[in-house]
Amino acid sequence: MQKTKLLILLSLFTFFIVNLASAQVKDTVLKSADTTKTKVVVPIGKGGAKQPVTRQDSMKAKYVNPGKVAGRKAVFRSMIIPGWGQLYNMQLLSDGYGTRAGKSQFWQKIYTGGKIAAIYGGITVLTMSYIESTKQYNLSLKELQYRDLNNGTPDPNGPFGARYSTSGITLRKDTYRRNRQIVLFSYGLVYFANIVDAYVAARLHFFNIDDNLGTVKVMPTMINTNTVFGFNATPALKLSLTF
């Protein structure tokens, strides 16, 4: 009984202390500072009344990485049409953006144009290979289907005749089917390489890659090997790296 009364009193005391502490807590909600400034301007002319003119404080401009923006644009274009990102990079060269602005971009444009030609040249070769592989695969499949329906007899109107065995034609069919799969995989590689190349070229366009970057200089010098009792000159080589 006494323990119950003690617990009740302890609970009431705790409740009272918590309420008292809550009442003593100040309001710590921060209000947004009003950045609007009021400036009094007197209009030109006599008898003009003073009119308050408000002006908003301008926020500090946020830094935007031009290389990152150019890389995103190049990737977006290359994803839509292969080679479009490279054309965008060529436009950057023509407009003179980046660290190479004002310099001759002739060879860089030739190099970028060569990449575009390589992209579409590769796509053309892959397309021709896919068409030829599909044609030969269908011929082999048609011959095998005819032999399967006629107890292994070769198709008299087919291109194979009796010169090729059934196992040889089966191997031929499987080879051209595998070639078609390789061509489809190569399409994906060319498409992916086109996107990566456009992004890397756009980012590197805004990097500092001038002639003074990464220079190495080696020159003769003298060092003091005796710092206690005087100067003792020893010939040495000085290596300077510039990044």
Descriptive key words:
single chain, about 240 residues, alpha+beta, two-stranded antiparallel ribbon, 4 strands
Helix and strand topology:
Layout: H1 2-24, E1 36-41, E2 51-56, H2 66-80, H3 84-95, H4 106-149, H5 166-204, E3 215-224, E4 233-242
Mean pLDDT: 75
Q: What structural class do the secondary elements suggest?
A: alpha+beta
Order of helices and strands: HEEHHHHEE
What overall form do the CA principal axes indicate? elongated
Report the helical percentage: 40-55%
Descriptive overview:
- The protein is α+β, with helices and mostly antiparallel strands and 243 residues long.
- The protein has a domain at 66-209.
- It contains five helices and four strands, in the order αββααααββ.
- The strands form two sheets. A two-stranded antiparallel sheet has the order 1-2. A two-stranded antiparallel ribbon has the order 3-4.
- Helix 2 runs antiparallel to helix 5 (166-204).
- Residues 20-46 and 53-58 have low confidence and may be disordered.
In short:
This protein is of the alpha+beta class and 243 residues long.
